[in-house]
Amino acid sequence: MKNDNLVVVLDGVSQLEYRRSAPLDEAQSRYLGRMDARMDQGIVLSGMQITAPDALQRAQFIAMQLLQAVQAGEEPVAAAMLAYLANRMPDMKQVRATTRGEALSFDLVFDRAYAKEVKVEFVKPGMV
């Protein structure tokens, strides 16, 4: 079975998962449309004003809002941002973020689905 989910990963831990197989209802679809209409007015991305953001710039802008909502525990906002990304960027598999102190960096991953990371501990020879 094909894994078509979009997963938010923060510091190696899965935080949220969106199942694309669950369709949006009409109100949710309208809300995503309103998000697009607001972004049509321009966005600020990495401190730069972008007057006509393309799909990738919109995804980066929404991903930052999503990650900030996850960190703040704002589940409804995070869910809306995740729904936007999953529906507007159907090839996106993961939003992978890393925190370093107050800094937050992220990558939008299109080429590999999320797989739970397994910690491997090595035993020194003679310690078994």
Strand content: 15-25%
The residue ranges in which pLDDT falls below 50 over 5 or more consecutive positions are: none
- Structural class by secondary-structure content: alpha+beta
Kindly, what is the distance between the CA atoms of the first and last residues, rounded to a whole number of angstroms? 39 Å
- Main sheet record: 4 strands, mixed
Rg (CA only): 17 Å
Tally of discrete structural domains: 1
Number of helices: 3
DSSP strand tally: 6
Q: How much is the average pLDDT?
A: 90
- Strands of the widest sheet, in order across it, are 2-1-5-6
What is the helical fraction, as a range of percent?
Answer: 25-40%
Order of helices and strands: EEHEEHHEE
Q: What is the overall silhouette?
A: globular
Provide a brief overview of the structure.
With 128 residues, the chain is an alpha+beta fold. It contains 3 helices and 6 strands, in the order ββαββααββ.
Report on this structure:
Strand 1 and strand 2 form a beta hairpin. The longest helix has 18 residues, at 55-72. The mean pLDDT is 90. The chain has one domain. The protein starts with 5 loop residues before the first strand and ends in a 19-residue tail after the last strand. The strands form two sheets. Strands 2-1-5-6 form a four-stranded mixed sheet, with helices on one face. Helices cover 37% and strands 24% of the residues. It is α+β, with helices and mostly antiparallel strands.
